[in-house]
Structure formats: structure tokens, C-alpha cells
Amino acid sequence: MVFMIPPRRSIAAAALLAISALLIAGCERVPLLAPSGSTISLTAAATALPSNGSTDIIAQVIESGGTPPHSGTLVTFTTSFGTVQPSQAETDVSGRVQVKFVAGTGSGTATITALSGGVSASGTNAVKIVCGAAAVGRVIVTANPTLVPALGGTTAITAFVIDINGNPLNSVPVSFATTAGSLANSLVNADQNGQAQTTLRTSQTATVTASVGATAPTTPTTPTSPTTPTAPATGSAPGQASGTVTVGVIAAPTLVITPPTTSPSAGLPATFSFVITAAATNGSAVRDLSVNWGDGSGVQSLGAVTGTAAVTHVFRIAGTYLVSGTVLDASGNSSTVSTSVTVIPVPRPTIIITPSPVPGKVNTQTTLQIQVTLPNGISVQDLSINFGDGQTADLGGATSASVPHVYTSTGTFTVTVTVLDTTGQTTIGTAAVSVGP
Q1: Segments in the chain below pLDDT 70
Q2: In CATH, what number is assigned to the domain containing residue 289?
Q3: pTM
């Protein structure tokens, strides 16, 4: 038997079925939320992150009875900085939800909250994570080397950026400033090890400051000597820190040259005093003292002279010379000092010839008394006599002698004495000898 449903009733039944289906579907799409009286606690794996850093965020939902809510309870996350990925997630059977916080490229403090139904983790229960430069805790600055030569040099300046938890903080910009000299780069991003490096070139004592944060602290006054890296200085506001290091200058030794008190003579030794004084602060050992005598004889190296050295030199030709001394230390510092000296011609010896008797007699011995007087420092290389009658004699290096001679004819004879001294000069003395019958 077939029952027929009136058309109007069929339409009403279909509508009722459709409404029921919509209601059922709507109920399935409504998310599960934490019941009233529940609590949400938030924890983060890290409290400080570099730029673009990330960390896990865990929300734990517990009902008022101390048990976790139904699995699949929806928790929504918000942050004041960066992003939470995903921003919504469902609890597992233990009531836990794990998402990831990504800091992004900026700097700031992220306040992360969680919400499910009427229950939230916010205010004092929210999680705070400092990101980028805002996470800086300390900046330690070092220099290698800490001393540069007096003529100028370079040193590597390294800033170690550490976050509030004592970990290296990377990808943050570090600003460098110096009280003297120049920096290769004044703004450098910290690498993966939290280090930022630049190069300082200076010939003066310089204090270099490395700063992280919006406002750099005031650069301290440069001290007169190098210092070890300072204890890190924290800025005046959170997310600001700086440190300093002082690079000193290796002082060069001083040199004083004192020439002879009286003008030296050509061909005679002249004694000069060279006094070297090592630097009292930041000094380095003397490696060499070299002297240019200014007379074309070249440069004389005296080695590692310390204190006072007396050095003699012989100027062969009279004139005025510029004597220069250069002291070089182990650090490469050099100091050159000059002084002028006037060299006078060497005095000539005096020669006195005294014949006896006067007048002499032919075929009788005549004695010639010869006396040579020499300036200090000079001696006779050779002394020769020409008696004027064709006869000669050589007395070697004698400076005085009684020389007998017999003239075989009468007349007046010119006796010539020639002296060659140790300076190379030749001096001639003469005397007339009368010889009678």
C-alpha cells in the first residue's frame, strides 16, 4: 500500500530537515573554549632575542578543578611586537598549546598574551621578550694592539655585544666613536658571535666608545695613558649600553747630540756625545742608533745604545757639517736630531833649525839642532833634511834631533827640513848656514 504525502506537508518536512542540518553544522563549527574559572599560564623558552630571532611559547590551560580542559580547546595569542605563529592553536590532551614567536627585524619589547573564552593570560601574567637592540645588556670593547707607534698606526677595535641573559647578541647595529684619529667604519652590525669590528688609525691617545641603543652615552675624556677595557657601562634607558677602550701611543726615545766644546780640526778625531733617554711611559727598547756625519762618509750604525755614548769621527776636510743621529726603538718609532759642527784646518807643525857654530868652518863639523813642535793629536810620520849642498838625511818619525854635517866648501847653504805629519800635511822649515874658511 502506498501512502501519499500531501504537497504542502512535503515542503514543510524538507524545510525542517534543512534547518536541523544547519543547526547541527553550526554546532560543529563553534570552537571549544576554556570554561569559566580556568587559568592560562604562559612560558617562553627565551626572554631576549636578536633581530629575526624566534622562540617557543607554551600556554597551559587548567580548569578550576585542576584538570586540563577538553582536547581541542582554542587559545588565541596576541603580541605587541613581532608575530606569533600561528596566532590561534588548540590544546592537546594535557591542555598545552605550543606556538612560535618571531621577533622580526626591529627592536622593542614584545608583550605576549593568551585568551580562551573569558580566560586570559595578560598583565602580570603575560610573557615579555626583549628583541633586537632592546635586548642588549652589556658592551665590552677591546683593542688589538692597545698601543700604536708615535708616528701613527692601526688597531682592531672589537665590540662584544651581550644580551640581558649574558648571551651573545647578533644582528644589532653598533655605533663607534673616537676622541682622536679616524675609524674605518662608524656603524657595524654584530655578527653571529655578537662581535662588531672596526679599525682605528691614530697617532694620538684615543678613547673609542661602542654603543648599542637609540641614544649613545657621552664619550669619556681620553686619559693620558692606555687603559684596559672598561667595565661595561649600561645606558640611561633599557636597551642602551656602551663600553670604551683606550688606545695609547708608544712614546719614542729622545736623543741629544753634544758636539766637541771647541771646533775640531780636519784630520783629527772629534768626539761627540750621544745621550738616549727611553720614554718614561709606554716606552720601548732601543734597537739602533745611526749617525750620518754629513761629510759623505756614509751612515754609521752604533747598535742598541742606551744612556750616553761617546763617539769619535775624523773629518778630513775643513768646513761646516750637519751631524744627524736617528734612534730607532723595537716598536718602529724613530727620532732624528741634528747638530752642526764647524771643522777648522789643522794647525801646522812649527820647525826650528839652529846651526852651531855660527859661522861654520869648511871641512869642520857643523851641528844642526832640529826641533818640531806639533799640535795636540798630531805626530810625525817622516822627517827629512836637505843640507843644501846636495846631501840629504832621513830621520823617520823624530820630532827633535842634533844632526852633524860637514860642508866641504865655503858659502851660504839653505838647510830644508820637510815634515810629513799624521794628518797627511807636509810642512817645510828652512835655515841659512854660513860656512867660512
Answers
A1: 1-29, 214-238
A2: 2.60.40.10
A3: 0.57
